[in-house]
Amino acid sequence: MQSEPDDEIAASFFRQPKAVWATAFAAMVGFMGIGLVDPILTSIARGLNASHAQVSLLFTSYFAVTAVMMLITGAVSSRFGGRATLLIGSALIAGFAALSGTSETVAELVAFRGGWGLGNALFVATALSVIVASTRGGAMTAILLYEAALGLGISVGPLLGAALGSYSWRYPFFGTATLMAIGFGAIALFLGPTPKPARPTGVMAPIRALGHKGLSTTAITAFFYNYGFFTVLAFVPFALDMSPRAIGLIFFGWGLALAFFSVVVAPRFQVRYSANTLITGGLLALAALLGSMALGIPELTIAAVVVSGAVMGVNNTVFTEMAMEVSGEPRAVASAAYNFVRWFAGVIAPYSAPKIAEHFGAPATFLVAAAMVCIGIAVMRSRSHHLGRFAAVPVAAE
């Protein structure tokens, strides 16, 4: 990655076939599902007469299914092909998003979000490998396209949730279903048949891939980082207790910062600093921002949320490249193994955050998240010798 000049990456970024743009658009819609519910969490709680912890299960069920099903994504895509797997995943996302909007109880909504997570698992891991295989300009350009889709999806999700959620908490789910149906059509029209590997991938391949100490180090560090990530995403709306529109705008700013720093700033940092250094610095910054949120000053919390988007943007790009390249495993297998571990933070953090707040107060929730992020730093620093070139200063910087 470091050998590609910035201007070459920028020039190749926009010269992509329609198949890449169709997949990236659908991936953006898929990522919208992560932040979509942020502005309407309190509205859902009121509408379905549910507690904060019960509503947080919308994240828990979604990511629990996503994490576990990551183990089968390689097996499915290697047998049916990337195109068919993307179509199955996008159809499941569209269907369960629409069903989520019809829920009459919080249990129904949690169950439908679990089904949505199944579609997300099939789609997200496969989308990255398809984009890498189809993109002009090399793996780094593909990763930047993927991270751009992630950043835009995460930023647009809260905005869509706020805009439609101001009328009813149900409308954002129907809106996402409609957009993913469009993504399904775009993939069906523009993405041709994708080659299958000579040998189908086994279900246990991602678990075996984690035997590579560089990949396991990346995944475990990302788990602790994502605990902080999902504390911001899932708990801040409760801590601020503002209108859906206000929360949507705050997380729109957060998502824009994430997208800009992941696509524009991160590659420039990667040319100058090792991945080990960037991750360590990024996690220290995130821990400090979480500590500032613990002070309970609304204006400071809002500012810290937006700034955390910039930090997370750099972290996400560095983590993604490390996960894809550090082990030498096929990209679909490496992606599934990495996501299997890190998405479990999305299972734990959204549910534990309000529970900690119930017993010890909101400041304790943010301090626990900061401590978890610091554990991630310890994992990275103690195991950096397994990271190969990612632990070294780039040649360009030397």
Structure description:
The protein is an all-alpha fold and 398 residues long. The chain has one domain (6-391): Growth Hormone, Chain: A. Helices cover 79% and strands 0% of the residues. It is built from 16 helices and no strands. It has helices at residues 6-13, 18-35, 41-47, 52-80, 82-100, 106-134, 139-165, 171-190, 205-209, 213-240, 244-272, 275-293, 298-325, 331-342, 344-360, 362-382. Helix 2 (18-35) runs parallel beside helix 5, helix 4 runs antiparallel to helix 15 (344-360) and helix 7 runs antiparallel to helix 13 (298-325). The protein is globular, with a radius of gyration of 20 Å. It starts with 5 loop residues before the first helix and ends in a 16-residue tail after the last helix.
